[in-house]
Specification:
Strand order of the largest sheet of chain B: 12-16-11-15-13-14
Largest sheet of chain C: none
Shape of chain C: elongated
Chains: A mainly alpha (about 325), B alpha+beta (about 550), C mainly alpha (about 300)
Distance between the termini of chain C: 24 Å
Number of helices of chain C: 15
Helix content of chain B: 25-40%
Number of helices of chain B: 15
Radius of gyration of chain B: 24 Å
Number of strands of chain C: 0
Strand content of chain C: under 5%
Number of strands of chain B: 18
Largest sheet of chain B: 6 strands, mixed
Oligomer: heterotrimer
Structural class of chain B: alpha+beta
Chain lengths: ~325, ~550, ~300
């Protein structure tokens, strides 16, 4: 087991390093840098002033030197300074994390609460009209662009009710009720989408298990249907679902970007888009690395859970 | 007798309502109430914090305005700005001397910076030496967009702690206009200029409480503000909302009390009015124009005939209807009346290319193109560059359609913000659809920035020595009537040279809830950010 | 598993297809067994036809502006209304199908083929090459899809080929993973060992024997990714870095302008969004059904 975890950890680290290089290079591929943006807010361009600012920010060094600087800083826990805000990157990023975390957590909870039961019902009542209806409902969630859903919700609310959730972020500590009101709609928008995948996997893995011999044996033996399902089938069906929840977490990020923008939540995803537009390299690099770490960590946790739950993995591989 | 007085009163109200504009209740003298917080719209986070001298965008001026003060400002209560509406802020009085060659300011003696230090002439000298890049200036700006505003200033002298003298190379009455713009606040000499990018030490009516990046800017009332009894409000909060639909929804739902300058288009106004009938709208000009830039240094637009053809082809009224739904007005380089005082008279305006009947104008355009060797079977292919922002793209789409009808096939190239200014400054384009905002509707500011030889914002690279001499002459003309004639003639000349034809002057329908009082938008988006006279009715 | 003599043809046969049955019979069986999938197929066919016949189906030129008809309500003149520049929404949606389909198909094809080749070779060769390739794929997959596409679009500039490239890149690792796992399971099969024993060159084995058996998963992957590609294109266009003017794009029709006029003209927001949802819905239905039919083993992937 320990060997398994260590191996996975090693792979994760290698992946992280690779990602840091990729995001570093990719960013600099985009034409124009922070200096261009600064001049654009100034409304003019001056080549000599440009050189001076680039020197000040260390952008005149060769790329590999800049990369090494970044890595060296990271090693001592220094995330660098935001080009746009002239403040330590961590100071700017830190307040964003709880917002995205809350939205992601709420979305995940909603998607599981929505996806697992509908998947179970759909599997148990396979090929009935209820099954079809649930599958269509869940697939509709997967098919709608998340930004559209958010837009329609806000516009619908303001047109019919004259009210929208608060546009300024309310901390859970300040006012938990208002905070939940603020987060419930965006979490529903994101959660609905994620629930589709979870529903499908729950349904398909449960179907597979239901066909297994031991389940049929239990039925033949006369144990009542519900007991059979809950005690035997679900336990084994949970495994792939856990995998999917882990994968879904990564897909969540994409939906978060537009949802945070539309509902005006000051989270990581919304900030990332702005930082990319501003070519604020330190912020983008650090945010992407944070997201990567979260994704890799969640994959690792899923892998470990897999290892614990599935004895074939533990001793095989 | 009683019925007559009722009728008179009713007529008076109707008259007042019609003068005040759409949606404004008849002006009645009300006593301002103290207290309350105002929530104000921001459409993006501050670009460089409160460093107004390092940016040229309303996104800095609007939220940074309450913190700082100018030497002089335009009267907050008057929409139309002119030399006649300039009032003192940090300066008590001022006096022109030596035939408008020296400008002396007598400063207030009771002003303190937000950190308690006293305000003196040293602060003024430090700020303007920095902006004009005086050789011995101790402070230097990283980005300095308005250096050319002060090109004529030879020295800034401080004979005593409450007197400042701007000594100029030649007479320039416009200097006062530029100093009154929202772009010209006074920085503190005792803090580094770079500190304004993250915080704000000012003399303004509100003190910065917190800037939560990407979320909001919070201000509290400055108890030591030098105008006694002001500000009325206790606090201000500028809320950042990046998504257009959400912004409108927020002010509609009452979570915002006032809009962002330039943000309320005619259609948005109509929607808001329908949903909230009591909402107040002010129809104001922005001192922002839609214009076409053409690179005069490269073919095909080095040919005057081709440029004129472009100007003729674009139906100005059609553009106003199509791209603005009527929310813009005809005008040349300077704001037309009644919005500004330097505009061309209507009869002169209507003689310009593109202002007449569309069919006739397009026929003229085709004739000019034929003279240049371009015919419908040999159309001209060009690339039209524009910024990748909706308002630019809409304008460009309309223009491309117009040009198609006279034999110019233009393909649209969207340029990202990061590259737009370098592309334009380096002349790496043929023709572009552009928006230009001006810190003050002043001929000097406009002509020298946008049409002078060698100016970094003269994207067309238009350079005409004769016209430059005209700029200099009007800049020194002290007789206002004579100057107006010169300025009108220059505007006509600029449109005839067609290096940067003006398509329309944009309007804003600045919106705020009726309980917001004392907030009077000007015909210039940059010049009413101070909030010193604003109060809440409930 | 008991050994049985295998002919090359049989090995190349798609599972589920009985030798000698006609295409029509196969389709009919599919429609009967998987009605939802058939519905999805019908939707995709409808969209394909719309895209191909866009010029015939349109009622107005989709990029012609008409100020007098600005924000017209849906009615006889403009079936689905018009936008703020007076452009007909119905015609723009019809042409938008073309754009969405082209971008979706091109990027899915590009990404799947690239990823498929990488997965095929990596799975077949195995060893260190496989390990390194897998890590590279992990890296590509770990980067959030939208962020990757955003940065790429910003780098390459907004144009259709660039958008296709940007959307195809995140598909590569997913395609590689699916094909690779399929290859891994086939590689060990005895007929491949037999082929090797016979002395056939590796490349020949890879492409002639292993590849055809990956077609099933490939098709499934393709239809699944098509829906996702359409959504990403919509999101990119919505954010302003996708398909540029003047090509009508469903996603761009929903961006700034729509939000601004949405309350006065809700049809600006409703119809393009419905179009996107419809297309993705169809591709998902079809993809699900194909997956169930062609390779039950993949139901969980």
């Amino acid at each position: 087991m320990k060997h398994y975890i260590a191996q996975r950890l090693g792979i994760g680290l290698v992946t992280l390093v690779g990602m840091s290089v990729v995001i570093f290079l990719l960013l600099r591929l985009a034409p124009g840098n922070i200096v261009d943006i600064l001049f654009s807010t100034g409304g003019y361009v001056n080549p000599s002033e440009r050189l001076a600012i680039e020197r000040e920010l260390g952008l005149d060094k060769p790329i590999w030197a800049q990369y090494l600087d970044w890595v060296r800083q990271l090693a001592v826990g220094n995330l660098g300074k935001s080009y746009r805000y002239d403040l330590p990157a961590w100071e700017i990023i830190a307040p964003l994390i709880p917002v995205t975390l809350e939205l992601a957590a709420l979305s995940l909870i909603i998607s599981v609460c929505l996806g697992v039961p509908t998947g179970v019902i759909s599997a148990v009542r396979q090929d009935t009209r209820l099954d079809y209806a649930l599958r269509v409902f869940s697939l509709a969630g997967l098919s709608m662009p998340s930004f559209w859903l958010g837009m329609v919700i806000i516009l619908g609310l303001v047109s019919w009710v004259g009210w929208i959730p608060p546009v300024t972020y309310v901390r859970p500590g300040e006012n938990l009720g208002l905070n939940l009101i603020q987060f419930i709609l965006p979490a529903l928008a994101v959660g609905y989408r994620s629930s589709a995948l979870i529903m499908r996997f729950t349904r398909s893995s449960l179907l597979e298990v239901l066909r297994e011999d031991y389940v049929r044996t239990a039925w033949a033996k006369g144990q009542t249907g519900r007991v059979v399902i809950w005690r035997h089938a679900l336990k084994n069906a949970i495994l792939p679902v856990v995998t999917v929840i882990g994968i879904e977490f990564a897909f969540l990020i994409g939906g978060l970007v537009v949802t945070e923008t539309v509902f005006n939540l000051p989270g990581l995803a919304r900030f990332l888009v702005q930082a990319i537009l501003w070519r604020d390299y330190p912020i983008v690099q650090n945010l992407v690395m944070i997201i990567a770490i979260v994704v890799i960590a969640s994959n690792l946790i899923v892998d470990v859970l897999y290892g614990i739950l599935d004895p074939r993995v533990r001793y095989g591989d | 007798m009683r019925r007559l007085s009722l009728v008179v009163r009713a007529l008076g109200l109707v008259l007042a309502a019609s003068i005040a504009g759409p949606g404004i209740p008849p002006t009645m003298a009300q006593t301002p109430k103290a207290g309350g917080t105002l929530h104000i719209m921001l459409r993006e986070d501050l670009s460089q914090g409160f460093a107004i001298h390092e940016t040229s965008t309303i996104s800095t001026v609007w939220p940074a305005g309450p913190c700082l003060s100018n030497l002089v400002i335009f009267d907050p209560a008057k929409k139309v700005e002119s030399l006649g509406t300039v009032i003192g802020e940090l300066a008590d009085k001022w006096s022109w001397q030596d035939n408008y060659r020296n400008l002396v300011f007598f400063l207030r003696k009771d002003v303190k910076w937000h950190d308690g230090k006293p305000f003196t002439s040293k602060d003024v000298k430090s700020t303007f030496d920095m902006v004009r890049e005086a050789p011995d200036a101790p402070v230097k700006l990283r980005i300095n967009p308005r250096k050319d505003w002060y090109a004529n200033v030879e020295a800034v002298e401080t004979p005593d702690p409450h007197t400042v003298v701007f000594r100029m190379k030649r007479p320039q009455p416009s200097l006062l206009m530029m100093l009154a713009s929202g772009y010209s606040p006074v920085y503190a000499a005792h803090v580094p200029a770079a500190s304004y990018r993250t915080g704000c030490v000012g003399t303004g009516p509100f003190k910065l409480k917190e800037w939560r990046k990407g979320e909001f800017v919070d201000y509290v009332k400055n108890p030591d503000y030098f105008v006694k009894g002001r500000p009325y409000l206790d606090a201000l909060r500028y809320v950042v909302i990046v998504e257009r639909g959400t912004r409108t929804a927020a002010i509609q739902a009452g979570q915002l009390d006032a809009a962002f300058p330039g943000e309320t288009s005619k259609t948005t106004m109509e929607q808001l009015k329908k949903a909230v009938p009591q909402m107040v709208f002010h129809e104001v000009a922005q001192t922002v124009t839609d214009n076409i830039i053409m690179n005069v240094k490269k073919p095909p637009f080095d040919n005057l005939k081709v440029r004129l053809a472009v100007s003729y082809a674009i139906d100005r009224r059609g553009l106003i209807q199509a791209s603005h739904q009527g929310g813009a007005v005809l005008g040349a380089a300077m704001l037309p009346r009644p919005f500004g005082v330097w505009g061309m008279p209507e009869k002169d305006l209507l003689m310009l290319p593109g202002y007449g009947k569309p069919d006739e104008m397009k026929a003229r355009a085709r004739k000019l193109l034929a003279e240049a060797g371009i015919t419908p079977d040999k159309p001209l292919h060009v690339e039209m560059a524009t910024r990748a922002i909706a308002i630019y793209v809409d304008m460009a789409s309309f223009v491309i359609n117009e040009l198609k009808q006279v034999g110019i096939e233009a393909t649209l190239k969207q340029v990202e913000t990061a590259q737009w200014h370098s592309m334009a400054t380096r002349g790496e384009y043929q023709i572009g659809a552009n928006l230009t905002g001006l810190g003050t509707d002043d001929p000097d500011a406009n002509f020298y920035e946008n049409y002078a030889c060698g100016s970094p914002r003269n994207y067309s690279q238009y350079c005409n020595e004769e016209v430059m001499k005209l700029f200099d002459r009007q800049s020194q003309e002290l007789d206002v009537k004579k100057r107006l004639e010169m300025v009108v003639a220059i505007q006509k000349r600029l449109e005839e040279d067609a290096a940067r034809p003006i398509l329309a002057q944009r309007l804003d329908y600045f919106a705020h809830w009726p309980h917001v009082k004392g907030l009077v938008p000007h015909h210039n988006i940059y010049n009413f950010p101070r909030m010193q006279d604003v109060w809440r009715d409930k | 598993m008991a050994t049985r003599p295998l002919g090359i043809d049989e090995a190349a046969a798609l599972p589920g297809r009985r030798a000698g049955s006609s295409v029509v019979a196969v389709l009919a069986r599919f429609c009967r067994k998987k009605p939802l999938g058939a519905a999805g197929g019908a939707i995709m066919l409808l969209i394909l036809l719309t895209a191909v016949c866009a010029d015939q189906l349109q009622t107005y030129d989709p990029i012609a502006t008409d100020a007098a008809q600005s924000l017209a309500r849906p009615g006889r003149e403009h079936w689905l209304g018009s936008d703020h520049l007076g452009r007909d929404i119905y015609s723009r949606i019809v042409h938008g199908a073309r754009v969405s389909l082209i971008v979706g198909l091109a990027s899915t094809l590009l990404g799947s083929v690239l990823g498929g080749v990488v997965g095929l070779l990596s799975g077949y060769v195995g060893g260190k090459t496989d390990l390194i390739t897998q890590r590279v794929m992990d890296i590509l997959q770990g980067l959030p899809l939208l962020v990757l596409a955003l940065v790429m679009s910003a780098s390459l500039g907004p144009s259709i080929p660039n958008v296709v490239l940007a959307i195809s890149i995140p598909i590569v690792p997913r395609a590689a993973r699916v094909i690779r796992s399929s290859v891994l399971s086939i590689r060990e099969m005895q007929y491949v060992e037999a082929a090797r024993a016979l002395g056939l060159r590796h490349l020949r084995i890879a492409f002639r024997h292993v590849l055809p058996n990956t077609i099933g998963p490939f098709i499934v992957l393709g239809t699944a990714q098509l829906g996702s590609a359409i959504l990403v294109e919509a999101a990119l266009s919505f954010l302003g870095v996708g398909v540029p003017e003047p090509y009508p794009s469903w996603g761009r029709m929903l961006s700034v302008s729509a939000a601004e006029y949405a309350q006065k003209a809700p049809w600006l927001v409703l119809f393009p969004g419905i179009a996107i949802s419809f297309a993705v819905f169809g591709s998902n239905l079809l993809g699900d059904a194909l997956r169930d039919t062609l390779d039950p083993r993949l139901r969980g992937s």
